[in-house]
Amino acid sequence: MAEENYHIKVMSKQDLAKAVDWAAAEGWNPGLHDIESFHAADPNGFLMGFLGDEAIASISVVKYDNSYGFLGFYIVKPEFRGKGYGLKLWQAGLKYLEGCNVGLDGVVEQQGNYKQSGFKLAYGNIRFEGFGGGDEPEGIGLVDLNELPFSEVQDYDSAFFPTERHVFLKHWIGQTGSSALGIKQAGKLVGYGVIRPCRNGFKIGPLFANDALLAGELFLALKSKATPTDNIYLDVPEVNLAGVALAEKYSMEPVFTTARMYTGETPEISVNRTFGVTTFELG
Q1: Looking only at Cα atoms, what is the longest distance across the chain?
Q2: 219: number of CA atoms within 13 Å, CB side?
Q3: Which of 111, 116, 105, 146 minimizes the C-alpha distance to 236?
Q4: Cβ contact 132:202 at 8 Å
């Protein structure tokens, strides 16, 4: 490794755009407008490794607070792999998150390495692929999240994430080109979801609901925002059997899996009401 020429910097938004392009090349299919939401979550939580002036490696280490962080975007350009550059970036990222319980969604080929770094398996996630289209259900209490007091969305979201994430969440539900819908019953939010445009088709995430019936109605409402020829994707915790059944009911096919892993104890979040993960990159 040409260590004297290798240095690590906090990413600018332009650097983050490059990392998103690398993620697309890896087949991760990022959202078209994710950058603003990601960067807002923690502007210091995106690191890039440079060899001279050339960007060659990326990692995100978003610190939501002093107790919890999430790691993603761990990519080294193919021609620079196996030379130690990624390891130095990894070490810098974990140093930034020192003292935090750190989560990640690890691809299969890296899970052994993550275990060696102290990450423990919590459960697997399955990415399902299907098609959009269909009609929006009627009479179920659908609401546009952006027309609700944000505190209502934030309060509901708190059951599904280990710590407060209001900055990220506000950007996420207002993301360009997305639709953010909830269901209200008896004056209370009982589920919400977001569908957003990606490099290929659309992703639904999150999809949170109090039960499988509500999740199904929300899924159909979000699915209707895409056309019947658009691919749609849903990332389901495999331990949520009702979520897996929902994807299968609408003829979605599994396309790959990840492992949710943590350095500390698995947080007490409502996985059984998580029918779709928000995003593999930021948890």
Answers
A1: 64
A2: 30
A3: 105
A4: yes
| Among 261, 272, 271, residue whose Cα is nearest residue 118 | 261
Handedness of CA 162, 253, 119, 59 (dihedral sign): negative
**Residues near 98 by beta carbon (within 8 Å), at least 6 away in sequence:** none
Whether the per-residue pLDDT at 111 is higher than 90: the answer is no
List all residues 6 or more positions away from 107 whose beta carbon is below 8 Å from its beta carbon.
Answer: 256, 258
Can you give the pLDDT at residue 9?
A: 97
Tell me the mean pLDDT in the region 132-142: 95
- Report d(CA 218, CA 256) in Å as an integer: 23
Q: Kindly indicate the confidence band of residue 131, based on its pLDDT and cuts at 50, 70 and 90.
A: very high
